[in-house]
Design goal:
The structure holds two protein chains of two kinds.
Chain A lengths: L4 H5 L7 H26 L19 H9 L2 H32 L5 H10 L9 H10 L6 H25 L3 H9 L4 H30 L2 H6 L8 H10 L8 H35 L1
Helix pairs in contact in A: 2-12, 3-12, 4-7, 4-9, 5-7, 7-9, 7-12, 8-9, 9-12, 11-12
Chain B lengths: L2 H7 L2 H34 L17 H8 L1 H32 L6 H8 L1 H4 L2 H11 L6 H10 L9 H29 L3 H9 L4 H29 L3 H6 L11 H11 L3 H32 L1
Classes of the chains: A mainly alpha, B mainly alpha.
């Protein structure tokens, strides 16, 4: 039974064929590239260049094995994880402190300060890449995880502050006030009183920042040069640049692609509600 | 006199200010070091011929900007950047709305559709770029293969400038429309059903209900999202980098890709910075127009 504004808007009286058909087309468009990617990552290389196309090759993990043997694949996975986790934590700590100040402490022109921070979000990352290269070089942070973590944390901070401010504002001040009167210090208030109640906001922003960092290409591609700091996103571009005897090594490219996709898709599927709650609380309200 | 003691001597207001400053300092320092200072540097470098390979570094006034006007790559990138962000954002909003209306229906399968809706958004952009490149590859790509089966025609997407451009726009939409739909869906679910009931009692038909209730109520959300989408996609280069690398020729190049190439690959820092300034100006223009639109939309309701 189709019951909705859409169904009515399109003039259905019980008939659902068009709605079902739309769903079918929608599902196909969303899932076809995913299926093709997974299929190509599990296929032996020879199966990718057969006509007629092989839709269901005999699955093999041979491609993962090749990656582990021929490139420092596990190192790239570790680097990507380190980059994503370090960026998430740095951004959260810095943003949480600033968000608390903006939400709770009266300061002349604090609104203006916050808007300066938020508006800096509009700056395109790529627009500052040349000076950043020089900054990182001078700090001896080129080609290090710390360097790319630093620049991406900065990029993600404004949005995180913005969302966290509205999360903190939703918490009644009386809770903190009572603790302060009882003689609790600021670190205690932040850690023991406010942190537990704003946890949903922190988790949401943590997830969003983790996904952003894991997916990020620009900074690692620009600022890393050796396997000790390259991430999976850089690795995939390098494998794409390479050639095998039969052309591009698509089975390996898609294998790295699947490796990069699985963690994020799992995170997103399990936390859709949390993500939308966070975004609505912060950005769109 | 120890620090704590000094702190105790300050007036409450001063203590509050110090506390405020201490708390926001890390965020602002981080932002200053990697955003504010680099922006100023970019603007300055745009007037120099700093080049790590030719080893030049002199103030050359507006010469980078004049060179840009004649630069085939930059001109192509500028026009495609604008085409890409505008057309993909408009398509994103329209399709996002349609998908949201679809996902807002209640019947068997909605749960599944809602679950998979966000998958394209979650896939790393560079991976999506390569996935579609492979899907569209002329010899063993699935889609040209199907087209060939059906019509006998052979299509080579990445050789035709027009096809390549269309594909870049569509893949952009594939990647982001789901997120748009996700946000719109939340917006739709926030509309009180009584409004529709009241309108129905007043005799409004479905079309009128959509135009008079749904659309106006979702409009501020649409403008905000559209604005974000415009500004963010202006600076993105992952998708083009994976999908076409800007080709054929410079048909699908974007400013961000040009900046990356000239700056990070060829170390022409001065020239790359000048392109960055053009990008920043573009962002500023779109931002101002967008804010103006947003205020107009707010006044209406």
């Amino acid at each position: 039974m189709v019951k909705s504004e859409v169904a009515r808007a399109w003039g259905f009286k019980g008939s659902a064929i068009v709605v079902y058909l739309s769903f079918l087309v929608f599902t196909l468009i969303v899932l076809l590239p995913v299926y093709w990617m997974v299929r190509s990552s599990l296929a032996p290389a020879a199966d990718l260049i057969k006509v007629p196309l092989v839709y269901f090759p005999r699955p093999t993990l041979r491609n993962f094995q090749t990656l582990v043997e021929q490139v420092p694949f596990l190192q790239y996975v570790r680097n990507s994880l380190a980059y994503a986790v370090a960026t998430t934590l740095t951004t959260l700590v810095v943003s949480y402190l600033a968000a608390y100040a903006f939400a709770r402490i009266p300061f002349p022109h604090s609104g203006l300060l916050m808007w300066t921070l938020v508006l800096s979000m509009a700056l395109p990352d790529v627009g500052t890449i040349v000076p950043l290269y020089r900054v990182l070089k001078n700090l001896h942070l080129l080609d290090t995880i710390a360097g790319i973590t630093l620049v991406l944390s900065s990029t993600l901070t404004p949005f995180t502050v913005w969302v966290l401010v509205s999360f903190i504002k939703q918490v009644p001040y009386e809770i903190e006030e009572a603790a302060i009167i009882d003689g609790a210090s600021l670190p205690r208030v932040l850690w023991h009183i406010l942190l537990p109640v704003t946890m949903p906001g922190l988790v949401t922003m943590g997830l969003i920042n983790f996904i952003n960092a894991w997916n990020n290409l620009l900074y690692p591609l620009s600022f890393t040069t050796s396997p000790s700091s390259k991430t999976l996103s850089v690795a995939i571009t390098e494998i794409f640049a390479g050639y095998s005897p039969w052309g591009k090594p698509w089975e390996l490219i898609m294998t790295v692609g699947v490796t990069m996709t699985i963690p994020v898709v799992i995170l997103v599927l399990f936390s859709q509600r949390a993500i939308v709650r966070g975004l609505i609380a912060g950005a769109i309200k | 006199m120890n620090v704590q003691w000094k702190f105790a001597l300050l007036k409450p207001a001063q203590r509050r200010y110090l506390l405020f400053l201490a708390l926001v300092a890390p965020a602002f320092l981080l932002r200053f070091a990697t955003a504010a200072y680099p922006i100023l540097q970019t603007i300055y470098l745009g007037f120099t011929n700093l080049d790590l390979i030719k080893n030049t570094n002199a103030f050359i006034g507006l010469r980078n900007y004049l060179a840009m006007a004649n630069d085939y790559g930059v001109r192509g990138a500028l026009s495609f950047t604008v085409t890409l962000v505008v057309s993909s954002t408009v398509l994103d909003l329209v399709l996002g709305m349609l998908v949201a209306l679809l996902l807002n229906t209640t019947f068997r399968g909605t749960g599944f559709a809602r679950t998979i809706n966000l998958i394209p958004w979650a896939i790393p952009t560079i991976v999506a770029g390569y996935a579609f490149r492979w899907l569209l590859e002329d010899q063993f790509g699935l889609i040209p293969y199907w087209i060939n089966l059906i019509s006998g025609a052979r299509v080579a997407v990445f050789i035709s400038p027009i096809l390549a451009r269309v594909v870049v726009v569509l893949v952009h939409v594939w990647k982001d429309a789901g997120f748009m739909a996700f946000v719109f869906l939340a917006g739709l679910q926030g509309i009180p059903p009584e409004l529709y009931d009241a309108a129905r009692v007043d005799g409004a038909n479905a079309w009128q209900r959509f135009w008079r209730i749904t659309l106006p109520l979702v409009m501020p959300l649409a403008i905000t999202m559209g604005l974000f989408r415009l500004v963010w996609s202006l600076g993105s280069f992952d998708l083009v980098y994976g999908l076409t690398q800007g080709g054929p020729g410079v048909a699908t190049s974007v400013l961000a890709l040009q900046i990356f190439r000239e700056g990070i690959m060829f170390f022409k820092f001065g020239f790359a910075s000048a392109i960055s300034v053009v990008l920043l100006i573009l962002v500023a223009i779109i931002g101002v127009v967008g804010l103006w639109l947003f205020r107009k939309a707010e006044v209406t309701y």
